[in-house]
Design brief:
Shape of chain A: elongated
Helix content of chain A: 10-25%
Order of helices and strands of chain B: EEHEEEHEEHEEEHE
Number of strands of chain A: 49
Oligomer: heterodimer
Distance between the termini of chain B: 28 Å
Strand order of the largest sheet of chain B: 8-9-10-7-1-11
Helix content of chain B: 10-25%
Largest sheet of chain A: 7 strands, mixed
Strand content of chain A: 25-35%
Chain lengths: 996, 200
């Protein structure tokens, strides 16, 4: 068929000088700049564009907008392959590749169409009834079967090569929809001086103005829209966002401004996004006021064969004729229940397309309309219905039922108008309920979200005059509400149009299948079945038949289905009610919600000042919250992590090692009451800590369980610096801020996180002192008397302020040295250079963990939110002389129960056996039941010093059971290990190494 | 004294121009002396007087920034400010602590924050992709300060007087986030063109 078979020679908003070639199912076609894929296909004479979901019936193009239920196609290839795109909103571009979906082997011949012959089986509730039993079949047979049959199209398995991004916008007035009402609202609000954002989902603003032959101030609607757009673009504070769908209305803040979600299709109309351009952009728009001018969606009528290719919404027929210069048919008929449908007659005739008949469900039709039909020699049937449309790959005949008479008329296109459904979805997203309008026989917005008004067809006012009038008023009112009052409300003269209509939904007793929901293949018979079986509530109807549950959310189907249910159950439509529309209004790609947060950018990464140095020495990093920490530093020839980690531990214990501990939380605490404050948050006392000293502290949550531990140093009379664990840094800061601001505002305490200010390195091992003496020179005396265990000092080294702490997590003589982070890189390099003569090694978090387990120091595995100070063997730290957060509740009977699991060390009886964290303790011979549970292993390590696996655990009455033998039961890791309970301090129990 | 210790900007090796460089210019503010200063209980008036005497600056009572010469104070919380001095380095916090001794708690943050100055004709459009706050000239005036988030990272932002007809913002993020922050900024600013200006 020739490419231009259905293309009119003139008219429309397409550029005939710019032809664009594209393919559909591999066939080459051409369209024009300004086309959608749908208009280009229709222009090329393509009628069948897909197969339906359940029955695999050939389907054509029903609409010209986002409501399209049929023309879902797969666009592009390779990594950009994109299923389920509505051809009616896909902008044509040069080289576009489109394919039909849901068919095999081809669109014309589809084996799945056998489902249609089996349709008595595939009725509503099919899955519920068929796949009930035998239950054993579910996983093996039914689910794979359903999964294969389900869904539309195929997603690509390759990573999306395009970028997506998020952005924020703010305005006084958000206008949703750029049709006549939206443009009028934007003009009046913009002229008043308000900050206006106008979003329109189309790539040309104007809405129905581009699709109808109505006039404003004597010029075409489309021309008026261009002029309005130009004026709006001349305002500095007005932003027009085409290709942007406002898909959701969300909460409003205290200022009353409401947040909206919008998707801008930045590059969907291009083969490949321009350099540095995202494919799509997700907008969060915060608007003080919003005007919903989203228009309305035309309703199909339910009759036999109403899904046949060639049956199209009347408004869509006019869009294709007027906007795209496309003749969807050569000889058409119009089936309507209102005046609006009659516009199609005159538009088709004006384009030179034959109109064989107009069928109006009403008995009384205005004489002017009848006269128009007479002028173009179209037959008119009033009080009549189309009962059937024939032609599976494009209709060729319709059957008209007028009274008892049936007449057949040969046409290749049928324009259908059952009335209009306002696009009110955004008014219901935050809880509003739509209201039934007798005037237009549709649901219109009911209670509006605060700050939102509705104008034009979205509110049920279906004429052009009303759209402009209401839009201008709403825009002015919204502008005035945001402080831009006083501007004159514009008004415009329009040509006449009429929206008079009689509700009409369903042609009964049709000879063939009559579809309600095209996308989910729900027929009038399915609605009747649901009614018979008692699924009469709209919510049950929806779930039983899947009416309105497709990706189009029932834009063209829900009301027809509900009206049929109302008739079947002899209720009114308002009594039957309607289902709730939820965001998004139209589908939004997950990629848009992810934005640039994909792969390594899923969350921010925090890098220490020494990261560049670490990166030069290892590739093994572990995520600790957002931080990356070196896990170990492999050396050439080492075969696995255990070899590297064991070497690091031995090096530290024999000479010296260096570990980046910058990630630990550091909180600067100052003020006259800083000491008193610390006494209240720690279980032990800090107000008595001498200046220049460090103390280990433990803090509880209000409920008495341990929250965190760490050391706090006293730098000055009113100045402390606290350290926290890496994992709990933010939580502790929050806890302290709560205590300071809420619990004890009377205390003179100021605090701020200094985690990021200081790069800090642990230098540990018997050679650590000599290493630091070499590094620091004579700026400090590090002898045991001058700088003993738990001393701290501030000093200047090479002109830079440095903090030195003599603290140890490894059990060795050790120091932590802190320096402003910009010098962190230089410091680690200087330490390593100074350490060369001692064979100092860098060590990672694994060696850190091994050494702390060898020393029985608790860490995250033990500070797990279920342990008390007593459980960890730290109960004696709890000062009796003062109160602190958590003290009272830590005395609850359950928390001081002597049977509570308490910290112990564990070694396998067979010293070569391996232990597993998470294994539960059982008395030897006891059954593995919950009642017999004695506790569990929290931390496991291979100790290179003890040359065997060691573990820390929490064991009922643990401290009194040293020497006892138990079973460590680990069903998930396959194995029971006999273990011996020992002191948790495996290495250097006397602590002599600590003091050097 | 030994040779001075090498210093490494948080944005070291990160700042690379993208695209035509015409929309947004980023300038590393490494070297900016930064300190948080929090008033001691009952010393608000005395502190204000001390700051007035010392710097000829009126301590702001809200989220605004007051500057005189090389020094500025930005309100970041009740009774708390981020003080800054061009090229002040770590010495700034020490001298500020001395001059406000007994009236305020001063904490050096010169290394805790990585600060970028952003300007250029498209700076607002680029920042709209990062910050969930309204940067319209009426809503965020010269001197305005906000503590907010940028792409899931905490950020403090303030607006400086316009230069060359373009708005100027400075953004402070925790130093460790510099790479993630730059990545998020560069991704969004790329389409406008991102240039790297000389440090100031």
């Amino acid at each position: 068929m020739s490419d231009s078979a259905h293309r009119l020679t003139e008219g429309g908003l397409i550029d005939r000088r710019k032809p664009l070639s594209f393919t559909f199912d591999g066939q080459p076609y051409s369209g024009f700049d300004g086309d959608t894929l749908a208009s280009a296909l229709l222009g090329a004479g393509v009628k069948v564009v897909g197969r339906s979901f359940k029955y695999h019936r050939p389907r054509g193009i029903l609409s010209a907008g986002c409501e399209e239920p049929n023309a879902l196609v797969e666009l592009r290839t390779g990594a950009r392959r994109e299923p389920n795109t509505r051809a009616t909103v896909a902008e044509l571009y040069e080289g576009l590749e489109a394919r039909s979906q849901n068919r095999w082997p081809s669109l014309a011949l589809d084996v799945g169409a056998i489902n249609s012959l089996l349709s008595p089986i595939f009725v509503a509730g099919f899955y519920y009834k068929t796949f009930m039993w035998p239950a054993a079949f579910w996983e093996k047979v039914y689910e794979p079967l359903i999964r294969r049959a389900a869904g539309l199209g195929m997603a690509t398995h390759e990573a999306d090569p395009d970028r997506y991004e998020k952005a924020h916008a703010f305005c006084d007035v958000l206008i949703i929809g750029g049709g006549p009402a939206g443009l009028a609202a934007a003009l009046s609000a913009g002229r008043a001086g308000a900050r206006v954002i106008l979003c329109d989902e189309d790539f040309v603003v104007g809405g129905r103005l581009n699709a109808e032959r109505l006039e404003i101030e004597g010029s075409s609607g489309a021309d008026w829209a261009r002029r309005a757009e130009a004026e709006l673009r001349s305002f500095g504070d007005v932003r027009i966002m085409p290709r942007t769908t406002v898909f959701g209305a969300y909460d409003s803040g205290i200022s009353g401004a409401r947040t909206f979600g919008a998707l801008e299709r930045v590059s969907d109309h291009l083969r490949v996004p321009a350099p540095h351009q995202p494919r799509q952009r997700l907008w969060k728009i915060v608007a003080s006021r919003a005007v919903l001018a989203a228009g309305a969606v035309e309703r199909p009528i339910v009759f036999g064969g109403n899904d046949r290719p060639g049956v199209m919404l009347a408004s869509a027929v006019r869009t294709y004729v007027n906007r795209f210069g496309v003749a969807p048919a050569r000889q058409a008929a119009v089936f309507t229940s209102g005046d609006d449908g009659w516009k199609t007659l005159s538009d088709l005739a004006a384009a030179g397309i034959g109109v064989a008949a107009v069928i109006d469900a009403r008995n009384d039709v205005p004489p002017a309309l009848l006269a128009a039909a007479q002028r173009v020699s179209a037959r008119v049937f009033t009080g009549a219905h189309v009962a059937d449309a024939r032609g599976s790959h494009g209709i060729h005949r319709i059957s008209i039922r007028a009274g008892n008479r049936i007449e057949h008329v040969d046409v290749d296109g049928l324009a259908v108008s059952g009335g209009w459904n306002p696009c009110a979805a955004l008014t219901t997203h935050v809880g509003g309920r739509p209201r039934w309008s007798e005037t237009i026989s549709a649901f219109v917005p009911g209670d509006l979200p605060a700050g939102m008004s509705v104008a034009g067809a979205a509110g049920g006012s279906l004429t052009l005059e009303a759209a402009l009038r209401e839009g201008a008023a709403a825009g002015a009112e919204a502008a005035a509400a945001t402080g831009f009052a006083g501007a004159e409300i514009p008004s415009w003269r329009t040509s006449e149009d009429s929206a008079a209509a009689r509700p009409f939904w369903h042609v009964g007793e049709c000879p063939s299948k009559a579809f309600v929901d095209f996308q989910h293949d729900v027929t009038d018979g399915d609605i009747a079945l649901a009614a018979r079986e008692g699924y009469r509530s709209v919510e049950l109807l929806k779930r039983y038949t899947t009416l309105g549950m497709a990706t189009d959310q029932g834009k063209t189907s829900s009301l027809n289905g509900h009206a049929i249910m109302a008739a079947l159950t002899e209720r009114s439509i308002p009594e039957v009610g309607t289902t709730t529309a939820r965001p998004p209004y139209t589908p939004v790609a997950i990629g848009a919600f992810a934005g640039h947060h994909r792969g390594k950018e899923f969350k921010p990464t925090r890098l220490t000042a020494g990261h560049a140095w670490a990166r030069q020495n290892t590739e093994v990093f572990v995520e600790a919250g957002q931080w990356l920490r070196a896990q170990w530093f492999p050396r050439p020839g080492e075969h696995d992590w255990l070899e590297s980690v064991s070497r690091e531990v031995k090096a530290v214990r024999s000479s010296a090692g260096v570990c980046d501990v910058s990630t630990l939380g550091k909180i600067d605490i100052q003020g006259a009451d800083a000491g008193a404050f610390l006494d209240r948050v720690y279980i032990n006392t800090f107000s008595t800590l001498p200046m220049g000293k460090v103390r280990y502290g433990l803090m509880l949550r209000e409920d008495g369980f341990v929250m965190d531990d760490g050391t706090t140093a006293r730098l000055g009379e009113t100045h402390y610096v606290m350290s926290t664990t890496t994992a709990n840094a933010a939580k502790v800061m929050q806890h302290l801020e709560h205590a300071r601001q809420v619990l004890w505002p009377e205390l003179d305490v100021q605090m701020v996180s200094v985690t990021e200010q200081w790069a800090q390195y642990a230098v540990a091992g018997p050679s650590s002192r000599r290493l630091l003496e070499g590094l620091l020179g004579d700026v400090i005396d590090l002898s045991n008397t001058a700088f003993p265990y738990l001393a701290c000092a501030q000093l200047a080294w090479r002109g830079v302020p440095v903090r030195l702490f003599r603290i140890s997590f490894s059990g060795e003589m050790a120091y932590e040295i802190a320096i402003p982070a910009r010098h962190g890189d230089a410091l680690i390099r200087a330490i390593m250079t100074a350490g060369q003569e001692f064979g100092a090694v860098p060590y990672g978090t694994e060696a850190l963990g091994v050494m702390r387990i060898e020393k029985g120091h608790v860490a995250g595995n033990e500070l797990n939110g279920t342990t008390t100070a007593g459980d960890l063997g730290l109960g004696r730290m709890l000062s009796k002389k003062k109160d602190c957060i958590g003290r009272v509740l830590s005395g609850r009977p359950g928390l001081i129960d002597p049977d509570r699991p308490t910290l112990v060390g564990v070694r396998p009886v067979d010293r070569k056996a391996r232990l597993h964290a998470g294994a539960h303790f059982l008395n030897l011979g006891a059954a593995a039941t919950l009642e017999n549970d004695q506790g569990y292993i929290t931390s496991v390590a291979y100790s290179p010093m003890l040359e065997g696996w060691i573990a820390l655990g929490l064991l009922a009455r643990g401290p009194s059971r040293h020497g006892e033998r138990l079973l460590a039961h680990s069903p998930v890791r396959g194995g029971d290990t006999e273990v011996e309970v020992v002191s948790p301090i495996f290495f250097d129990p006397e602590g002599t190494r600590l003091h050097g | 004294m030994a040779e001075s210790l090498a210093s490494r900007s948080a944005f070291s090796c990160l700042l690379v121009a993208v695209g035509n460089g015409r929309g947004v210019t980023a300038i590393d503010r490494d070297g900016l002396g930064l300190a948080t200063i929090a008033v001691r209980k009952g010393s608000r008036n005395a502190l204000s007087q001390r700051i007035r005497d010392e710097f000829r600056i009126e301590l702001p009572g809200g989220p605004t920034r007051a500057a005189a010469g090389e020094v500025a104070f930005a309100g970041i919380a009740p009774g708390s400010w981020l003080a800054m001095r061009d090229q002040g380095g770590n010495a700034f916090a020490a001298s500020l602590a001395q001059s406000t001794a007994g009236l305020a708690s001063v904490t050096d943050q010169s290394d805790g924050y990585a600060v970028l100055r952003l300007t250029g004709p498209m700076v607002r459009a680029a920042l709209a992709k990062l910050l969930p706050i309204d940067l319209h000239p009426r809503a965020f005036q010269v001197g305005a300060v906000a503590s907010t988030v940028a792409s899931h990272m905490g950020v403090t932002v303030w607006r400086l007087p316009d230069t060359g007809g373009a708005a100027v913002f400075e953004l402070a993020v925790f130093r460790s986030l510099a790479e993630s922050f730059w990545h998020a900024l560069a991704e969004g600013a790329a389409e406008f063109g991102l240039a790297v200006g000389r440090p100031c």
